[in-house]
Design a protein that fits this description.
alpha+beta, Diaminopimelate Epimerase, Chain A, domain 1, 8-stranded mixed beta barrel, 6 helices, 23% helix
């Protein structure tokens, strides 16, 4: 097997007990897909990023959940950026992902490193009514509980997510769902997570992200979904740009996370967060 070092960091938090844990594997070359899948399963976090040295200006990166490869993962990218910054110092690291190049700017603030990823070009489409109905049924939600000001949508910034907004904070806090039923729907429709949100005020959202396709009940911080939401809000003209929104996530899981989402007038969405080490091998 190709040799490398495995780090464990948690992203979108300054506390090892908060945020979303990610594995970051760095080696001279990527292991074969079977080996990467096995390492990710052994790590057991929602995603592990595998990074090879730069070929030209960018480092190759691939992401694996415990069950399958994922096209793009935001929290593992933030963790990877901070690991690279810890090894090589602050600066901009370019990652060649399966969906395109993603620059990650790493800086030190108040003694802690944080990273900002700039997503690939976001996009969104409407969601067929029957798909929304199936998702609501799996969640145990009613249509009357949805926030009409943020219509359901398929949103993308490296991976596809189904965005569902509720008008009620309690609806979001009481998340329970049919794991296998939702997983089957998501696999069929190509959704990586569901981006379930409640908008407390114009610049503050609360989110929860079921991730059954990765073998994980819920993500405590989901950078790819945050970028997809930012792109959807901009392109559907649901916010005035440029603007910055905050997303609080993971609190119901006991792993509070804070995602800062900069939404420019055009181009990729910038998602920023801190990351701290849990342990290393």
């Amino acid at each position: 097997m190709t040799s490398g070092l495995l780090y464990r960091f948690t992203a979108f938090s300054t506390n090892p007990k908060g945020g979303n844990p990610a594995g970051v594997w760095i080696g001279d070359a990527l292991p074969d897909p079977h080996a990467m899948q096995q390492i990710a399963a052994d790590v057991g976090f929602s995603e592990t990023a595998f990074i090879a040295p730069a070929a030209g200006t960018a480092r190759t990166v691939r992401y694996y959940s415990p069950e399958a490869e994922v096209s793009f993962c935001g929290h593992a990218t933030i963790a990877a950026g901070v690991v690279l910054g810890t090894i090589g110092g602050d600066g901009v690291y370019r990652l060649a992902t399966a969906v395109g190049e993603v620059p990650v700017a790493v800086r030190t603030r108040d003694g802690l490193r944080e990273a900002s990823l700039t997503s690939v070009e976001p996009m969104h489409t409407t969601t067929p009514d029957e798909v929304v109905g199936e998702a609501l049924a799996a969640l145990g939600w009613k249509r009357t509980e949805l926030d009409d000001s943020i219509p359901p949508a398929r949103a993308y910034a490296g991976a596809w997510h189904l965005v569902l907004a509720t008008r009620d904070a309690d609806r979001l806090s009481e998340l329970q769902y049919d794991f296998e039923r939702l997983k089957a729907l998501m696999l069929r429709e190509g959704f990586t997570t569901l981006q379930l949100v409640w908008r407390e005020r114009p610049n503050l959202f609360h989110a929860r992200n079921p991730f059954p396709v990765g073998g994980v009940v819920e993500d405590p911080a989901t950078g790819a979904a945050a970028a997809a939401l930012g792109g959807y809000l901009r392109d559907a003209k649901l916010v005035t740009v440029p603007t910055t929104i905050l997303i609080r996530q993971g609190e119901a899981m006991g792993r509070p996370s804070l995602l800062v989402v900069e939404i420019p007038a055009r181009g990729g969405i910038v998602v920023t967060g801190a990351a701290v080490q849990i342990d290393a091998e």
